[in-house]
Write a structure and sequence with these properties.
This protein is of the alpha/beta class. It starts with 12 loop residues before the first strand and ends in an 18-residue tail after the last helix. It has one domain. The strands form 3 sheets. An 8-stranded mixed beta sheet has the order 5-6-4-3-7-10-9-11, with helices on both faces. The protein has a two-stranded parallel sheet with strand order 1-2. Helices cover about 30% and strands about 15% of the residues. The longest helix is centred in the last third of the chain and has 16 residues.
């Protein structure tokens, strides 16, 4: 792990806005948790400067997780402050997924990496009644943290808080790896950081969508799949179009995609990447919860003021270190696996034939008399040949007539 933080272009000092008395005089969207920033405040947050103070959730209360909405127990807050290296974070709300245990984790990572799973009361009740959670509130390698007073009715929107604002809840962590609750981590976290951040000199890495790379296409796909109400998606896209959003084309190279596969986010917690996460969260807070639609707008606004880039790697690379599992409702409706067929025992060889039954009758002696059928006629002399048969075997002589000339003598 690098000994010093990476370079943060332009932005050096980032602080966050706290407001006890919220003003709801915003044009549209927003929430109490997000602080209802106005469109002017939104515009100012994209004007990258050396020192900035921005909205970044948790606007009420003196500390994230303490009377801010998305409240956490004090024991959890204290433990999270002790995480000063790498944190792997995930979340399951509404008991929507099974907790997947990471595999291939080194002993060093087990000792130095913080694994935190954020859950709600419903998920906690299931884990306790099923016996999967111990008295130490751990499920395998995961340290569970129960979220109280969630700020949104929609669990998917609440899930964006640990996904995008992990740097707010772990103020001393240097790196974070977010994975969706439906994923199983199968590669050591340090190997992932080395591959996608340290080797690339990047502070933010995310995979491209496996199929779509244009925001307009992504929006239509979300509408077709019923991911969010169509009117809200159309409003968001039209708003971005007025700000200058255009369909993806080769003119945007070296940018290779405008649409991420947001189930995995790899970050170093430096000011510029923290700002990007804050601004991305507030797009989700103001518009729809479909973060794939708002990603490129945040990225491009920051790029206009800095030379900061995001490592967007191929989705097939993501599939090398996480495995996607089914949601719980799908698992419950799946037919149980058929029992393995037991092969029939091998056929036994047929039994030997039984010996002939013994009889009390006396044995029959063979007869010494000769039957008429057994009499064979004795061989005798052959009869003499008759006329022609006898001559056919004799020597023929040429008959010579007097006065005749020999043909050969002529």
């Amino acid at each position: 792990m690098p000994k010093v933080p990476s370079y943060s272009p332009v932005l050096k000092n980032l602080t966050y806005i706290y407001e006890e008395n919220l003003s709801r005089k915003t044009e549209f969207g927003g929430s109490e948790f997000g602080g209802y920033p106005t469109l002017k405040q939104r515009s100012d947050s994209y004007d990258i400067r050396e020192s900035m103070s921005v909205h970044c959730g948790f606007v009420r209360g003196s500390k994230p997780g303490r009377n801010t909405g998305y409240d956490l127990d004090e024991i959890d807050l204290n433990d999270m402050e002790q995480c000063n290296g790498v944190v792997v974070a995930s979340a399951i709300f509404g008991n929507f997924d099974e907790i997947n245990q990471p595999r291939n984790i080194s002993d060093y990572s087990k000792e130095t990496v913080c694994f935190y799973m954020f859950i709600d009361d419903v998920t906690e009740a299931y884990l306790r009644t099923s016996g999967k959670m111990g008295s130490d509130r751990k499920v395998g390698i995961w340290r569970t943290v129960v979220v109280h007073n969630p700020p949104y009715m929609d669990g998917r929107r609440t899930g964006k808080i640990p996904k995008l604002l992990v740097h707010r809840m772990f103020p001393n962590a240097r790196f974070s790896l977010w994975i969706d609750g439906k994923l199983e981590l199968v590669v050591d976290p340090y190997q992932i950081l080395e591959r996608f951040l340290w080797r690339k000199n990047a502070t933010f890495a995310i995979s491209r969508h496996y199929k779509r790379f244009d925001v307009f296409t992504e929006a239509e796909a979300n509408k077709a799949a019923g991911k969010y109400d169509n009117a809200s998606i159309d409003f968001q896209v039209e708003f971005y179009k007025k700000e200058g959003l255009t369909p993806y084309s080769e003119e945007k190279l070296p940018i290779t995609s405008d649409v991420p596969e947001g189930c995995v986010i790899i970050r170093e917690h430096v000011p510029i990447s923290n700002l990007a996460a804050c601004l991305w969260f507030h797009e989700v807070d103001r518009f729809t919860s479909r973060d794939q639609i708002s990603f490129s707008t945040v990225r491009d606004h920051i790029r206009e003021k800095t030379n900061w880039t995001i490592n967007m790697f191929y989705d097939c690379e993501r599939r090398n270190f996480v495995v996607q599992k089914y949601h719980r409702d799908v698992l419950e409706h799946m037919a149980p696996p058929l029992p393995k067929a037991v092969p029939p025992p091998p056929l036994l060889p047929p039994p030997p034939p039984s010996p002939p039954a013994l009889s009390n009758e006396p044995p029959v002696k063979p007869s010494t008399e000769t039957s008429p059928e057994s009499i064979v006629k004795a061989p005798g002399k052959r009869p003499p040949r008759r006329g022609r048969d006898r001559r056919s075997g004799s020597r023929r002589h040429r008959k010579i007539v007097a006065g005749a000339r020999d043909i050969d003598s002529s």
